[in-house]
Design goal:
By secondary structure, the chain is α+β, with helices and mostly antiparallel strands. It has helices at residues 19-23, 28-39, 44-58, 114-144, 155-172, 186-193, 195-212, 236-251, 254-259, 276-292, and strands at residues 6-8, 16-18, 61-65, 74-76, 84-89, 103-108, 176-184, 218-223, 226-231, 262-270, 298-300. 49% of the residues lie in helices and 20% in strands.
Length: 301
């Protein structure tokens, strides 16, 4: 049998479903609606959400697990009693994910019948094609929002993350925090030891920043020797704890001590009623108050 035009179904009965046969079980109207919805986005998370919503309208679907594509990419109910699971592979998808096995696990409230499995095969193939575009777009976007020297986000990445977080916070009446970090005595390193050694300082600081943050936090090289961190915290105590961790890491680093490098830090908490520019100015003003009064310290706005 030629498997090139089939999709594997792990339910164990009639395992290989013909795509031509599968497409005949789903109305042209619903198929067109489904395709228009998928083609309306190139974001992986939004794409998965649309896919789950559309598929749930046609099938007794409880959950879709796409964690082989991206951690935490899961839609639907997390607590299902004795679910029926169908696993379908994503064929010829790379998107910067290497050669690992990529698949979707579909959990059903009840066993899907043959027509439902045919519908799933059709919709899975359509989703696969758009997912490939979304992953490639994500890969290219990552290149344009990363700082090549440090591996942190760049200014464009910072601006994008600020828009995303501020939108989420206004929608859910939440808060997030910002740290602005400037290196002390960095110009002396460039002047006395050359830009190559200055680059090494920037890379070392970036490593310490990543160690000081939690998994949900984001770090960026804003420009020159200035860095920014967007933090998933709402209290001044949480903000202070991150700043203290970073100071401890930098001040205890033998290489930093040898080059006379420390860091001045300003912080502020974003409130849903203000603009991103406002919270950045507050944190930046706090940073420069630190610079004027002795450096190597933290001040919150």
């Amino acid at each position: 049998m030629d498997y090139s035009n089939t999709i594997y179904d792990s339910t164990g009965q009639d395992n290989f479903v013909s795509l031509a046969q599968a497409s005949s079980t789903y109305s042209t109207y619903h198929l067109n609606t489904f395709m228009k919805q998928l083609l309306s986005t190139i974001d992986v998370d939004t794409l998965g959400s649309i896919y789950f919503r559309q598929l749930s309208m046609a099938l007794p679907l409880a959950k879709i697990d796409l964690t082989s594509i991206q951690p935490n990419l899961c839609f639907g109910s997390e607590s299902i009693c004795a679910p029926r699971i169908v696993t379908l592979p994503f064929v010829d998808i790379a998107g910067g994910l290497g050669t690992q096995n990529l698949f979707a696990s579909y959990s059903f409230y009840e066993d899907p019948d043959r027509q439902e499995r045919n519908t799933l095969a059709t919709m899975h193939q359509i989703f696969t094609q758009q997912l490939q575009h979304a992953l490639e777009f994500k890969r290219l976007k990552l290149i344009t929002t990363k700082d090549a020297l440090t591996g942190l986000g760049n200014r464009a990445g910072f601006d994008e993350a600020c828009k995303r977080l501020s939108s989420r916070c206004r929608r859910h009446q939440e808060q997030f925090a910002l740290l602005v970090i400037d290196l002390d005595n960095f110009k002396l390193v460039n002047d006395n030891h050359g830009h190559q050694e200055g680059d090494r300082v920037l890379q070392e600081v970036a490593t310490h920043i990543k160690l000081a943050l939690r998994h949900s936090d984001e770090a960026f090289r804003f420009g020159g020797d200035e860095f920014c961190c967007l933090l998933d915290c709402e209290t001044s105590a949480d903000l202070l704890a991150v700043a203290n961790r970073l100071h401890q890491l930098v001040n205890n680093c033998a290489f930093m001590q040898m080059r006379g490098i420390s860091c001045s830090i300003g912080g502020a908490i974003f409130h849903p009623e203000e603009e991103v520019d406002s919270v950045f100015k507050r944190a930046d003003d706090a940073l420069y108050r630190v610079k004027r009064t002795g450096k190597n310290a933290y001040l919150a706005a």
